[in-house]
Records
---
Amino acid sequence: MTRVLLTGFAPFEGESLNPSWQAVRAAAAEPPAGIEASAVELPCVYGASIAVLRAAIEEVRPEIVVCVGQAGGRPDITVERLAVNVDDARIPDASGAEPIDEAIVPGGPAAYFSTLPIKACVAAVRAAGLPASVSNTAGTFVCNHVFYGLAHLIATELPGVRGGFVHVPYAPEQVVDRSQPSLPSEAVTRALHEIALTAARTRTDIRVAGGATH
């Protein structure tokens, strides 16, 4: 059994739900064979989100951590390549904080790469009949903040842990009155199962094109 910690976010910016938490909770409730999964909901708050993540890692002691967040407007499951050491808020977090050009870890590396097999994860989700791609930016909001915080913990304190970040589209009920792409929670849950299984089974990523021209 591979211990996997899945994290999602609480709703933010006036939303009544967050599809990341919906899918993470369902994925951990009925994990695929070979996976022992736990789920934790993170606040959409700079600083506090990393503290809750650290506490969950200390409690669960996972081998793999997959943090998940909402990327409204994206049409597919996007597996993030790297986290950057900057908070730059276009909107306030759930506590009202709006940091601008602040380092997440003062003196830390400019960026960290995911330690998950990102391209193999994308391939597995696509093989399951769901849309997926590699993403080269996790933004500069709380999602990137958590991704960088996780990567820094792994690099400095948790060398036996692998982890990364996945962005998911809106849920259908979030786009009833706006023209935006969405994916049902059941589809996102299946994608997370594929990502968890692939991460557990794959140490060396596949070598296929996954870049972007802009």
---
Amino acid sequence: MDLFENSNDWAKKLEPILTKYKGKKHPLDYHNLYQLLVMVVLSAQDSDAHVNKIAPALFEAYPNIKSLAVSNPEALIPHISSVRNFGTKANWLLEIAQTIQKDESIPLTMEGLVALKGIGRKSANVIMREAKVPAEGIIADLHVIRVAPRIGFITEAKDGIKVEKQLMQVLPREIWGEIGMAISFLGREICRPQPKCPECPVNGICEYYREHQ
């Protein structure tokens, strides 16, 4: 069967998770776009929960991009030293702040976001989804990378960019903004490495469930 033949079917089949998770806020506990941008950079190869823990003290010291733009690695690093790759991320954040200069100038297009240090397509998709601007891609985080092939609507891939590309071919554009996060929430809550299949709202269409029940 050609995976790319019935894109509309998949949109319909995934409706239960779109309904369940539509508009649900990202697990990063941010309060504005500036905080989201910083936290997305910090959460690469680290957990959202960990970044949430260090965020209040960090944003007390650096309430906006302007304050970050005039800082330096020595001042910033103590606030983020428990985060993985903190040295590199400190440099990225300072460079982003010096490039953007003020909160209102945070770009909200794929092109503008991926031009920033430490922001790849996945991070850009997250920022655009939370900012409620039209999607230019689909969030493909580690949960999506695990769950989408398991359900069976893309072939397995370890690479987020390849996974995103396959998703974009299979799914209609009007659900791009929400479907990535919906699959991610499904992966966080139900379709975990050890999945809780009986609880899953889309187990009726899932290849893995069909094989393992």
